[in-house]
Design goal:
- 37% of the residues lie in helices and 14% in strands.
- It has 13 helices and 15 strands.
- The strands form 3 sheets. It has a 7-stranded parallel sheet with strand order 3-10-11-12-13-14-15.
- α9 links the parallel β12 and β13.
- The N terminus is likely disordered.
Length: 426
């Protein structure tokens, strides 16, 4: 049987679980979107572990240094999902067109042509918007780190001159070049037979990874993360104007995107704005309903009225109190399902929301067990999570957020083996 024929079962598996029907086995995602990936160094280690061809890993998401999970590794790991994204990365330069080699801690990797970095006197690696080293850097990888952090480039704020349009610069109409790209990559993704997750962009309301404008050469408006959070309380009129504009443009863009990609997409990645901390929340449910809910609902309502896509919301932390509001807004899927956070016990999540939300993640703890436990401890937790989340569908196995650098390869392999062990019992 051909790989595509085998993979055809993957889409059916994804479709079943998203519709809360029992699939033949628990579907697996690693690499479907920017919050379900694997650090490039671990992708390299997994390729060695599975005896695959030795070649440099492609960094397809430079911000978090995520490695491309290519077809041979998808087959080796038994992954059921593939992902597509826009032409440009978070730093504003194209990904997937031209590549060049770069040394990451002695590991040769391939990075996009626009990946232009310098090193400062402290040994930190600096990244530049659109790859333009003539402007101030927009991100830094501190010495010894494995991914980039945004650099806040905040002009002094003059309360009397604040203009919401300054925070709208990065949200514009989709171009024909973008549409051609989406049509091409979604058709190729659908041809694999895997489930397809699309990250079209433009629907990220207040994600603090984007607020600093890492893709902009000279960002204006409120770009300091602390100041942005303060503004969600003290400048709500300003935030509403930004979100209203963004929402209107996003829906117009989705109309044009759907016209070229059609039903080749199974899941649309909505937004990565986090509302939870380890033990609490960044805002109240009341603030969520006033400030965020109207825009999530407009986008979700459009998607559900015009497409067969399901909507995925990434939201870290202790977010159980927000889940009824997410459901009311039309969100179908929660990721990463941070079971270690307060109030996020998997048994309660499944019992209270499992018939209305698909849990995309929650498979293993990436803060403690996966990076620091033993393979046996990883196996035990994975099997238990599958026992809780799998019955009745509504579960896609993924770790809780991306697999981080320096995670032992034997633990990642034990995680994958445990899912397949569970699936062998179904």
């Amino acid at each position: 049987m051909s790989t595509v024929a085998i993979n055809m079962a993957s889409r059916a598996r994804i479709t079943a679980t998203l519709n809360h029907k029992q699939p033949d086995r628990v579907p697996i995602d690693f690499g479907g979107h920017m919050c379900s990936g694997i650090h490039a160094s671990c992708v390299a280690g997994l390729r060695d572990h599975y005896g695959l061809e030795k070649r440099p890993v492609r960094i397809h998401e430079p911000y978090q240094m995520l490695g491309l999970v290519e077809d041979d590794l998808i087959d080796a790991m038994g992954i059921d999902v593939t992902g597509i994204a826009g032409r440009n990365c978070k730093f504003g330069f194209p990904v997937g067109e031209k590549w060049k080699t770069w040394d990451f801690r002695g590991l040769e990797v391939l990075v996009p042509e626009g990946f232009n970095v310098t090193m400062n006197e402290k040994g930190d690696t600096l990244m530049y918007p659109e790859g333009d080293t003539k402007v101030p850097p927009s991100a830094v990888m501190p010495q010894g780190s494995c991914f980039f952090d945004c650099i806040v480039r905040q002009d002094p704020l003059d309360e009397d001159k604040l203009d919401p349009e300054d925070n709208m610069e990065e949200f514009g109409a989709v171009t024909q070049e973008d549409l051609d790209h989406f049509a091409r990559v979604t058709a190729a993704a659908r041809a694999t037979g895997l489930g397809v997750v699309a990250s079209f962009g433009g629907t990220t309301f207040g994600n603090v990874g984007d607020v600093p404008g890492p893709m902009l050469k000279h960002p204006k408006g409120i770009r300091d993360i602390t100041e942005w959070y303060v503004s969600t309380s003290s400048r709500q009129d300003y935030i509403h104007k930004v979100f209203e504009w963004q929402c209107a443009i996003a829906i117009q863009n989705l109309e044009r995107i759907y016209a070229v990609v059609g039903d080749n997409v199974d899941v649309m990645y909505l937004c990565g704005t986090d509302f939870g901390t380890q033990t609490s929340a960044f805002c109240s449910v009341k603030t969520f309903h006033n400030l965020y809910f109207p825009y999530y609902k407009q986008v979700c309502d459009w998607v559900h009225a015009h497409t067969p896509w399901k909507v995925l919301k990434h939201c870290c932390g202790a977010v159980s109190k927000f889940l009824p509001s997410f459901i009311e807004a039309g969100i179908d899927i929660l990721n990463p399902v941070q079971c270690s956070a307060t109030g996020m016990e998997p048994e309660g999540l499944k019992a209270n929301f499992g018939d209305r939300l698909t849990f995309w993640g929650g498979g293993v703890d990436t803060q403690h067990v996966l990076p620091f436990g033993t393979p046996a401890e990883v196996r035990e937790q994975v099997l238990r999570r599958c026992e809780i989340f799998a019955p009745g569908g509504g579960f896609v196995f993924n770790s809780i957020h991306n697999v981080q650098a320096e995670t032992p390869i034997e633990n990642i392999a034990a995680m994958i083996d445990a899912v397949h062990e569970f699936n062998g019992r179904m």
